[in-house]
Design a protein that fits this description.
This protein has helices spanning about 20-35, 50-60, 65-70, 115, 135-160, 165-170, 245-250, 315-325, 330-335; strands at about 10, 40, 85, 90, 95, 100-105, 175-185, 200-205, 210-215, 220-225, 225-230, 240, 260, 270-275. By secondary structure, the protein is of the alpha+beta class. It is built from nine helices and 14 strands.
Length: about 325
């Protein structure tokens, strides 16, 4: 583990600052994406009160008995792929993670055209009756973080020499928004904990951009050219990283960065990643010729051996290809 620090970027100008200010933020984003693929942001618009309410409601949920949490199990979410999974219920590279969690997404009614048509990963969330405050806390956070995601993608477009609204026009007019609450226990049961066990094993994210809020307990580690770097919680910040589809769109100019989690704090840890991703139906193709990207060498092989540049299809195709590997028992409900 190296002692290097990830950059911190004030993204506030992306919400309406002058052109020069927005361009300066875009340049900082470009440098961070080229160097690390990870950075912190301030000025993101997610208030301390929203985060505090989310953490309090989440902690209350995870103290419920297992049989109570199971009333909103992911198996009950069907094709929407929402709800709770137990400790060890999610796999990374075929190994159980030392975490449990809640899955949410954009709340869509039964008569929404995509839900009515049976599109996977679209639908309603599952909410625990025992923690009624969780729903408003989650929806407030998702709303604020989604606004930050749209703003960051404006900065991302500028960083690539494109018009600010490029991603909004082509990929994110109706983004795929997936939100997770992860609970990493202070200690794990013996059958799950081994010398090779991680809270989350080495992986990269699937889409465009991830925005992560952390509680005060660290554990996130990022793989950089200089080695693994800790990404501890910094007050007032969100952690951002780019995903596989931004890697694909830029031809590898911005690479999706492997990361992992190990909770060594001695306390229960919570994290809150929101995935701001392309429209489910959007075709994943390289950026237009006017994009300001350079020649890209082969680089290091990916952690999973995949060749992102060889992928063709929609974002939904790519996302569904991952579902059966993360939750094999749910694959039949979604695919």
């Amino acid at each position: 583990m190296t002692g290097a620090r990830l950059p911190v970027i004030d993204m506030a100008p992306l919400f309406g600052g002058g052109r020069a200010e927005r361009t300066a933020v875009a340049e900082a984003i470009r440098n961070a994406c080229r160097a690390h693929g990870f950075f912190y942001v301030t000025g993101h618009g997610v208030s301390d009160a929203v985060l505090a309410a989310l953490e309090a409601a989440s902690r209350r949920f995870f103290t419920l008995p297992e049989e109570t949490k199971a009333t909103i199990a992911m198996s009950k979410g069907g094709r929407a792929w929402r709800g709770h999974f137990p400790l060890g219920g999610e796999l990374t590279s075929g190994r159980p993670d030392l975490k449990e969690g809640l899955y949410f997404g954009s709340e869509l009614p039964a008569d929404h055209p995509r839900v009515a048509a049976g599109w996977p990963l679209h639908g309603a969330n599952l909410w625990p009756a025992e923690v009624p405050e969780l729903r408003p806390a989650v929806e407030a956070y998702m709303g604020a973080a989604t606004r930050a995601g749209h703003a960051l993608m404006r900065g991302m477009a500028l960083s690539l020499g494109l018009e600010e609204d490029y991603f909004a026009r082509v990929y994110t007019a109706e983004p795929t928004i997936l939100f997770r609450i992860f609970h990493y226990p202070a200690s794990a049961p013996a059958p799950l904990k081994t010398a090779e066990s991680w809270g989350v094993g080495e992986h990269s994210d699937y889409g465009l951009l991830t925005l992560l809020a952390q509680d005060r307990h660290g554990g996130l580690q990022v793989k950089t050219p200089g080695g693994w770097v800790a990404a501890p919680p910094l007050p007032g910040t969100l952690v951002c990283n780019i995903g596989d589809m931004l890697d694909r769109l830029t031809g590898g100019w911005y690479r999706s960065t492997p990361h992992r989690v190990l909770n060594e704090s001695g306390a229960d840890r919570l994290s809150f990643p929101l995935f701001f991703d392309p429209d489910f139906a959007a075709a994943m193709e390289p950026l237009p010729p006017e994009a300001n990207i350079g020649q890209v060498g082969p680089g290091e092989p990916r952690w999973d051996g995949a060749d992102l540049q060889a992928f063709t299809g929609t974002y939904g195709d790519y996302l569904l290809g991952k579902v059966s590997k993360v939750f094999p028992e749910l694959g039949g409900d979604v695919l």
